Amino acid sequence: MTLSALAYALRWRSRAVTPGAHRGTLAGPGHDFERSVPLGDQGDARRLDLRASLRDPSERVWIRLFRQQAQVPVVVVVDVSRSMDYRGATHRHTLAVELAEAIAHSAWRVGDPFALIACDSAVRRELALPPCRSAAGARAAIARLRAHVPDGDDNSALLRVAPQLPRRRSLVFLLTDAHMPDERMSKVLASLAHHDVVTVVLGDSREQRASARWGIARLRDMESGAERLLLQRPALARAFEEARNERRERLRRIAMRYGRPPLFIDDRIDPMQFNRYFLQT
Hints:
Largest sheet: 6 strands, mixed
Radius of gyration: 23 Å
Number of helices: 7
Strand content: 15-25%
Helix content: 25-40%
CATH class of the largest domain: Alpha Beta
Strand order of the largest sheet: 6-5-4-7-8-11
CATH architecture of the largest domain: 3-Layer(aba) Sandwich
Number of strands: 11
CATH topology of the largest domain: Rossmann fold
């Protein structure tokens, strides 16, 4: 299965006026049946509800009312701080770019406007793309993101993303390695709570696990650049695994306060895992 098979789904109805592929709140042409009503001056006799009409003792003619399908803005917010440049089992920034490109393609396929915002310690305006339905515009924005080298000191500008988002409720993908204090993560998700946020945590198996073999390892903090030597040993490997599980559980609890659980992607993008996430959350 290729990345072009990625598909997202919504749990809520869009209030947008523009027709699209998602369930909407407005009455209009579509396949989302709402209710049957007696035929009035504004009714459409082509939507005759024969069964309801035959059951009516007053012999009134009933018609079916439907809700119009609507579009939803899709926004990808990408963490481009220095830790996103980590190269282990994969290059994390490249993984983020590939996922952003696949989401853009999925949005273009169903007719949703796509937007891109990149942040480190500042909102990188040179990488931004306002909501648009242009496939060429999305490809150009993805190309700029691909060429960018993550070098920000931290991802604190994620706290300033909310004013850049569309005013109406949108589907927001937050692509990050979550290398930030729990308090900041909580504040970021709280600031985006008006929207439907999918927190995608990009992990790497080589970063998250320590070797159980005895030896000397040099560790470097990707954000600060600080280095230290560690003695590799089985006990340290177990401690790494426990810390990884505890961190993921904390991220899950934080994300659940504001909506969906996080989606953990390690090393590569699995379209089946991605699509199943939207069926289960």
